[in-house]
Amino acid sequence: MKGKKTFLKTIRVNGGMIHFDMSKPEQLKRLAAVIDQAADEISSKYDPDERVDFQPFSQNIAEEFDRIFGKKATIKTFGTDLPSMGQWEEFNDKFTVLVEKWIKEGKYAS
Question: Which string of DSSP letters, residue by residue, matches 22-76?
């Protein structure tokens, strides 16, 4: 019996390379869910004009990000271990486009 294949994609980021296994698309859903949960919690608990300490939210997202993309992937990608919400959302938007391109090209495991 053959083992499950991995379809490792390498992404060049500011601080080096990060990796994503396209045979595990559920990881993207978890990352998006963590980002969405943070955004929802911030928007529901805080006034738009209120200054929010984003550190606890960013820390949760960074932990998930590093699980998916590899050790210290957050620092390699963003240059910090606690990116802003805007940085997380921008990465999520750009990476989603990249994954959709890979899927369209058939360079993944279904």
Answer: TT-THHHHHHHHHHHHHHHHHHHHS-TTS----HHHHHHHHHHHHHHH-TTHHHH
Residues 105 and 9 sit within 8 Å (Cβ to Cβ): no
Cα dihedral sign, 39-42-43-44? positive
pLDDT tens per residue across span 75-107:
999 999 999 888 988 988 888 888 888 888 875
- Model pLDDT for residues 7-36, shown as the tens digit of each residue: 888 899 999 999 988 888 788 888 889 988
**What is the distance between the alpha carbons of residues 26 and 32, in angstroms, rounded to a whole number?**
10
CA distance 76 to 70: 10
Point out which residues pair with 21 in neighbouring strands: 8
* pTM score: 0.80
Q: Which of 64, 55, 63 is nearest to 83 (CA)?
A: 55
